[in-house]
Amino acid sequence: MWTRIRAILVARNREFYRDRAGLGWNLLMPMLMVLAFAFIFQDEQSDLLKIGVLTPGGTLSVVESPVLDLEHVTFVPVPVADLAAAIVKVERHQLDLLLDPGAAAPRYWVNGDSAKGYLAERLLLAAGSSGIEIGTEPERQTLSGAALRYVDWVLPGVLAMNIMFSSLWGVGWVIVRYRKNGVLRRLKATPLSPWEFLTAQVLSRLLVVLGASLIVYLGAAWLLDVPMRGSYLALALIYVAGSLCLISLGLIIAARLRTEELADGLLNLLSWPMLLLSGVWFSMEGTSALAQWVSQALPLTHLVAAARAVMIDGAGVVEVLPEIGVLLALAVAFLTLATWMFRWE
Question: Which among 44, 253, 254 has a CA at the least distance from the CA of 153?
Answer without folding.
Answer: 44
